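Blinded run. Sample ID left blank on purpose so nobody reads anything into the name before looking at the predicted structure. Input follows.
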Amino acid sequence: ATPRALAMTAVMPLLSALFIVCGLFGGYLVGVGLMGVDAGSYMSSLRSAVDFHDDVLGSLLKALIFGGLVGLIATYRGHTTVPTSAGVGAATTATVVVASVSILIFDYFITALWGV
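Blinded prediction complete.
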């Protein structure tokens, strides 16, 4: 694997964790700040609704796999493209399409195996 693909594999779970925290904080701000929900009730409901194994670890596992997958697809397409502006544009479009479809396929199998 190339260093870029390894970097994608390493960074995607970190980004996923960051956005999980941002989503939880945003939900807290809306629930407590705008809707007037009691902070203790919100945190209690959050703890009972979120399963660490299924929700958090499952999303980090998916981010790890998707990061590696997208990294490998992007580096392969980048290294095999024609070195012109049209070639780079075509490779970029092909990368987005192949990566998107691959993520859908891998997500199906991960969900079937992991149960997330």
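Unblinding after everyone has recorded impressions. The mean pLDDT is 95.
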